[in-house]
Amino acid sequence: NCLGALDGTHIPVHVLDVDKVRYWNRKGELTTNVLACCSHDGLFTYILPGWEGSTADSRILRDAISRTNGLKVPQSQYYLCDAGYTNGEGFLALYWGQRYHLTEFRGRSNRRTKEVFFNMKHSHARNVNLWYSKKKILRTTTWYPPKTLCQIISACCLLHNHIRKTTMIDHL
Question: What is the pTM of this model?
Answer without folding.
Answer: 0.78
